[in-house]
Amino acid sequence: MFSLVSAPVLGFDLIRRDGGHRVAAVLRRALALDAADLPGLAAAYLDDPDRDAAWVAISAGPRDSIQEFGTELAARIDLTSQAGALRTLQQLARAPIGTLEGLLTCVRTDILGWTWRSVADLSVQDELPARAVAVVCDAVAGCYAGDEVDGVYRRRLAGPWAQAERRIPERATDLGPSSGDITGLLTRARHLDAADFAALRTAADGGARGREWATAVHEASWAVHLADRVRPAAAAQFALVEALAAADIPVADAAGGTWNLFSGAVQAMMVRDLLDAETTHRLLAPVIQTIGIGWAE
Question: Which of 132, 137, 149, 193 minimizes the C-alpha distance to 19?
Answer without folding.
Answer: 149
